[in-house]
Amino acid sequence: MRIHGIDAIALDIPLKKDFGGSTYHVLKRSTVITRMRTDEGLVSEVYNGDNRAHGPEIVRIIQEDLAPRVRGKRILESERIWEEMFALSHAQRDRKTLLEAIACVDCAIWDLVGKAVGRCACELLGGYRSELPIISIGGYYMEGKTHADIGREMEAYRLAGMAGCKFKVGGLTPDEDARRVEAARRAAGPDFVLAVDANRGWTAPDAIRFAHLVEPLDIRWFEEPCHWYDDAALMARVRRATRIPVTAGQSEITSHAIRRLLDAGAVDLVNYDASEGGGVTDWRRAAALCHAAGVQMAHHEEPQIAQHLLGAVPHGTFVECFADPERDPMWQAVWANRPPIKNGIMTVSRDPGFGIVLDEALVRRYRIS
User: Fold this and answer.
1) Domain of residue 45, residue span
2) What is the pLDDT of residues 81-139, one digit of tens each?
3) Residue 353 belongs to some domain of the structure
């Protein structure tokens, strides 16, 4: 079965308010849908990423640079196809955007392979488990937000079926953010998973001070604690100074960069994002490196993909989503057949490939012309 053609669609969905972390603002939900067709009539249905600046450019790269290289290839040649696409990164260009485009094509190929053999992607990749705990990303900085508001937010995530929350920090002083996390823990109770994410917001000394302040609060992990410019070395310092596990990887775009984090002794968990780093094919390489190093796998957002990847491997941990109805319209509405969430557990879709069905009316409404 061979690849016949590729269509890519960029979506922009405006949000009603700003969901801000320590180093960024979110005013819209963006993604790219990839529909790859085979010569036997199969069509992929996947969406990847949340690139709020370069969606149309990702579509252009798919259609102009990648499609000519994959057209006519067999869908079972995923490694060869990936290698040919990745070769484009050797020239000077925006490699991050290129790798996101490669991820779209690579995930579409894996979706087609699953559909061709009648198996979900999780089974194709290892089939280790059929259910995963799921947590919501939250704790965003908003004007006028109080500790009482944080408490109500945690309760809302419980009511939405979440096992826990990955809470935003790094935008205030360590002491101020520690008080926010304490409010979240107090409201959520001891049986609620609570992780923290600084989005590279702090120096190593500030990250260490914060970690010491929140250690009594049973924090599952401390994500991207330090500034970008020397993050591996700085995170290794933080990791040596606290008993809270350190997580990173979402800002990397290759498995080679994940090896750098492992070699530095910087991480206890890796949340490499298949939609940022070249798709399923390179995520598997990163997962293999982590398994050999005794490091667990998480995944940055992207539950429609992450459920299959984390479910496939023995060292997979938590699926992440945005349970706030206003934060992620893709999760809330566009993904029409999303698996049910109950008691903190997401059941991995058993439909062939990634098993995604999208609301076509909403796709037409929000596609970028």
Assistant:
1) 1-117+359-364
2) 999 999 999 998 899 999 999 999 999 999 999 999 999 999 999 999 999 999 999 99
3) no
